[in-house]
Amino acid sequence: MELFLLSNGKLADDAPLLGYAQPQLHAMIAQRGITSAVLIPYAIIRGDQQQRAVDLSVSLGISVRSIQDFSSAVEAIEQAELILVSGGNTWFLNQMLHEKGLVVPIQRAVRERNVPYVGWSAGCNVATPSIRTTNDMPVRSTVVLPALGLFPVQINPHYIDAHVSGHMGETRDERLAEFCAVNPDESVIALREGSFLHVSEDRLNYFSVRDEDFKLFRHNQPIQRCYDVSALQSLVPFRCD
To answer: Which of 17, 85, 166, 193 has its CA 20 to 30 A from that of 63?
Structure first.
């Protein structure tokens, strides 16, 4: 199984999409001889979904087609060499995956056919057991919480621990600590911008273009700042070297 779970898609407006992960993505594409990918853009509500596919084609150097261009979404996944899942609204994305009947096909593609999965922001959220640690608003009244479950631990993308002047609400740390208090058997990995987790051949690695840490939240334990994945060894079935 190969997963790229990225906190965000860009580091700047004029930066290439997934640019900060290009070395690892290009290496994977070259090693596998991948020539095309299927993009799942459902999370994009107000942006141009077709342009997202064009941007990814340029960034990754392969042909990228939106899943909506196929006559059958399920068949598109069954034939995909690479699955890309865009950022946007996690709630809407997860609901569409369920409504389109794509959850099991994606799981089978990744787990049985070893098709790489690349998800950023919302696409990272839906790769975990549920979308309960997203930062997004539930924009539809019908809510689906279970997600793809490709990665066994909850993730909070776009993590920031800065204190905004004048903000009197709970911090992100407080919200994630609340999640762990209500769900004491679960943990949360908080990923900063410009960072991602990579699972390849049952081995887990962490990358940060800014050499920053990620945080690990667990019930009744101090928040842990981590620069490598060794702290996750008891939580994941992958090697954490």
So the answer is: 193
